[in-house]
From TrEMBL:
It comes from Trichoderma asperellum (strain ATCC 204424 / CBS 433.97 / NBRC 101777). One of its GO terms (biological process) is carbohydrate metabolic process. Pathway: Nucleotide-sugar biosynthesis; GDP-alpha-D-mannose biosynthesis; alpha-D-mannose 1-phosphate from D-fructose 6-phosphate: step 1/2. Binds 1 zinc ion per subunit. Its EC number is 5.3.1.8. This is Mannose-6-phosphate isomerase. It catalyses: D-mannose 6-phosphate = D-fructose 6-phosphate. Zn(2+) binds at residues 110, 112, 137, 265. It is an enzyme of class 5 (isomerase).
Length: 411
C-alpha cells in the first residue's frame, strides 16, 4: 500500500436543486466541469445549484487520482491528514463542509437547528435529518449576492403591523415589541390561511413606497414581493416573514455574512462560496413547496432572536491574515471552532508561502493559474481545481496569472 500524500487534488460533486442557475450560467457547474478526468458535462436544460467538496456522504469529494472518497481516506489516515487536534475535537471527519452555490431563485426560508435539537431530530427521523450536528454557516459573495438574513430592529417592524390585516397577529394589550412578540408574529403568519395572506399582500400593495422606505424597508420591496410570488406562490407565508421582518442585504464580491445556528436566512440570487459546520440539517418555514415546509411551531420556537441575528452582527468582514507571508491572504473568522475561511488574491508572478495549520485545509481556485507546492509535490492550479492539504503541511502557492483561491482551514 502506498502511503497517502499530504497534498492532493480532489473532484467535487455538483447537484441540481431547482433554485440553481441554468446550464452554463452556473458558476458551480462551470467550476465543477473544469476538474480534469471527470465525466461531468453541462446540460443547458438543467439547473446546477451547488458544488460540494467535503467528506459528507451526499455529493462527496474524491481523490482525483484514485477515485477514493475523501471520507474513506480521512478514516484510514486520520492522524496524518486531519492531525491529532482535529481528530480529538471533531472525530475522523472534516469539521467543515465547503460549497460553491449558484443561485437563480430564492432558497427556502430556513434555519439550521442547534446541536441538541439536531440530535433529537436525527434520532427521530434519520432520513430527513441525516446527522446530529449543528450547522452555523458563512457565505462570501463571488458576484452580487442578494439575501434576507436575521431580524430587522423590532422598532422598525412594529409600525408596519398597524396595517389592519397585520394587526390581528398582535396580542390585544401589546404596545411595545419584544422577542416574544416577534416569535408569535412569525408563528401566526406561517399558520395563516391563504385568504389572510392574500389580504395582507393586498394591503401592502396599497402602501406608498415612500412610507415603507421611511420605516427602513428597501426601495426594492415591491419588486421583491413580486419576484418571490412569481418564484413560489402568491400565498407562500414565508414571503411575508422575509419582507416584513427580515434584513435585506445586497453583498458585493468579497463581502460575507455569518449565519449562526438557529439563525433565519433566505438566499435570493448570486454566486457564493459557502462553508458550514459538517451538517446537512435544515428546518424550512416557507419559500418552498408546501410539502417541504416543516412544523410551524417547531420552526418558530427554534428561531434565534437576539443580538447575534441583528444586521450589524451578521456581516463578517475579511481581515488581513497572519497566514500569508506576502500579505495576499485575508481571513473570515466566524465565532465558531470548526473553521476559518481564507481568501487569497495574488497578482501574477508572485509567490505566497502559506500556512502550516494544526488541522486540515480544503481549497478551491476560483480564477487564475499557477501552482501549489507541498509535501514534495507540485500541482497545477486552475479555476475549479480543488485541493486537500493535510494538517501541519507547509504550502507555497505561485501565481502565473492573477489568482484567487478560497480555503476552509482549521487552525
Ligand atoms: Zn442555510
Amino acid at each position: 500500500m502506498t502511503s497517502v500524500s499530504r497534498l492532493f487534488q480532489l473532484s467535487g460533486t455538483c447537484n441540481n436543486y431547482p433554485w440553481g442557475k441554468r446550464g452554463h450560467q452556473s458558476l458551480a457547474a462551470q467550476l465543477c466541469k473544469k476538474t480534469p478526468g471527470t465525466d461531468f458535462a453541462i446540460n443547458d436544460d438543467e439547473y446546477y445549484s451547488e458544488l460540494w467538496f467535503g467528506d459528507y456522504p451526499d455529493f462527496p469529494a474524491r481523490d482525483l487520482e484514485t477515485g477514493q472518497t475523501l471520507a474513506e481516506l480521512l478514516k484510514s489516515n486520520e492522524e496524518k491528514l486531519l492531525g491529532s487536534y482535529a481528530v480529538e475535537k471533531f472525530g475522523n471527519n472534516l469539521p467543515f463542509l465547503p460549497k460553491i452555490l449558484s443561485i437563480a431563485k430564492a432558497l427556502p426560508l430556513q434555519i439550521h437547528p442547534n446541536k441538541s435539537l439536531a440530535a433529537k431530530l436525527h434520532e427521530k427521523d434519520p432520513e430527513k435529518f441525516s446527522d446530529s450536528n449543528h450547522k452555523p454557516e458563512i457565505a462570501v459573495a463571488l458576484s452580487r449576492f442578494e439575501l434576507f438574513a436575521g431580524w430587522r430592529e423590532l422598532s422598525q417592524i412594529s409600525p408596519m403591523f398597524n396595517i389592519p390585516s397585520l394587526r390581528r397577529f398582535l396580542p390585544e394589550e401589546s404596545n411595545t415589541w419584544n422577542e416574544k412578540t416577534l416569535r408569535n408574529v412569525v408563528r401566526g403568519i406561517l399558520k395563516a390561511d391563504e385568504q389572510t395572506i392574500q389580504n395582507i399582500e393586498k394591503d401592502l400593495r396599497q402602501q406608498s413606497l415612500e412610507d415603507i422606505q421611511k420605516l427602513g424597508y428597501p426601495s426594492s420591496t415591491f419588486e421583491l414581493i413580486q419576484r418571490l410570488q412569481s418564484q413560489y406562490s402568491a400565498t407562500d407565508p414565508g414571503l411575508l416573514i422575509a419582507i416584513l421582518c427580515m434584513n435585506f442585504f445586497v453583498l458585493e464580491p468579497g463581502e460575507a455574512i455569518f449565519i449562526p445556528t438557529d439563525g433565519v436566512h433566505c438566499y435570493l440570487s448570486g454566486d457564493i462560496v459557502e462553508c458550514m459546520a459538517r451538517s446537512n440539517n435544515m428546518l424550512s418555514g416557507g419559500l418552498c413547496p408546501v410539502a417541504d415546509r416543516d412544523n410551524v411551531d417547531l420552526f418558530s420556537e427554534t428561531l434565534k432572536i437576539d443580538s447575534s441575528t441583528q444586521a450589524d452582527n451578521l456581516k463578517l468582514p475579511a481581515k488581513p491574515s497572519k497566514d500569508g507571508a506576502s500579505g495576499y491572504t485575508m481571513v473570515y473568522q466566524p465565532p465558531i471552532g470548526e473553521f476559518d475561511l481564507i481568501r487569497i488574491d495574488m497578482p501574477a508572478g508572485k509567490d505566497e508561502l502559506i500556512w502550516n495549520h494544526k488541522g486540515p485545509t480544503v481549497a478551491i481556485a476560483i480564477s487564475g493559474e499557477g501552482v501549489v507546492l507541498g509535501d514534495g509535490k507540485e500541482l497545477a492550479v486552475k479555476p475549479g481545481f480543488i485541493f486537500f492539504i493535510a494538517a501541519a503541511t507547509n504550502t507555497m502557492i505561485r501565481a502565473d496569472t492573477a489568482l484567487q483561491i478560497f480555503a476552509a482551514v482549521l487552525r
